[in-house]
Amino acid sequence: MDKWNNRETISKSTFWSTFFDTTKDGKKFFSYRMKRWILVISIHLLFFLSFSIDIQTLEGTLNGSRFLGFHLIDIFTTIELFLATHELPVNMIIGTVTIVLFYLLVGGRSYCAWVCPYGILSEIGEKIHNTLVHKKIIKERKFDHRVRHIFWGTFLALSFTSGYLVFETFNVVGILSRFIAYGWSLALIWVVVIFALEVFYSRRAWC
């Protein structure tokens, strides 16, 4: 993407051109999008290889994993599990504290950009959505993202009352992460549904 000579922006360039930036001198280099995608793919390749050929580097999924034997646990998953089982093992405490410290140092949104596999699909969906809106095939619609707090509360209450991590049935990030590490499941249909929703109705609806 040539910001200097052609005044290109993400919305006014091809999707693939956003993987490279151009200097004033015309030299091309990897854009932040390219670097993010490389890291996301690399992380999940480690998940896949750790399970498929047992290299034991990054084991598990994004919900809960071990990196070189050190536990890493998603914060929301920890809360769900505690409400469902009323227990909090030491390994989960260590893994959760590690993630909290990481978020405090680099910011929680960095997870979405540099780790989350659905972020890649969402970026593709956003580009398709914007193209369809520009061509007036569909209309631009937006969700009120404050509704997420209602969903969080609802799913936590369901975990407490059912003893089951209900949210993980619908969590597209977890579904994708499990698919990459362990293989196909019918839950991928839900990922396709959410992706279609973002393409044809409201971009970045899940996020």
Put the structure in a nutshell:
The chain is mainly α and 207 residues long. It folds into two domains: 1-30, no CATH class; 31-200, no CATH class. The chain has helices at 32-52, 75-85, 90-106, 109-114, 118-134, 147-162, 167-170, 172-182, 188-200; strands at 20-22, 28-30, 58-60, 64-67, 70-73.
Query: Could you name the ranges where pLDDT drops below 50 across 5 or more consecutive residues?
Result: none
Overall shape: globular
Round the Cα radius of gyration to an integer and report it.
Answer: 19 Å
- Kindly report the average pLDDT value: 90
Classify the beta-strand content into a percent band: 5-15%
Helix share, percent: 55-70%
Q: Biggest sheet, open or closed, and with what strands and sense?
A: 3 strands, antiparallel
**In order across it, which strands form the biggest sheet?**
3-4-5
- Count helical runs: 9
Overall tally of domains: 2
- Helix/strand order, N-terminal first: EEHEEEHHHHHHHH
Distance between the termini: 25 Å
Number of strands: 5
Q: Label the structural class.
A: mainly alpha
Question: What would your notes on this structure say?
Answer:
With 207 residues, this protein is mostly helical. The chain has helices at residues 32-52, 75-85, 90-106, 109-114, 118-134, 147-162, 167-170, 172-182, 188-200, and strands at 20-22, 28-30, 58-60, 64-67, 70-73. A 3-stranded antiparallel β-sheet has the order 3-4-5. A two-stranded antiparallel sheet has the order 1-2. Strand 3 (58-60) and strand 4 (64-67) form a beta hairpin. The model has no long low-confidence stretch (mean pLDDT 90).
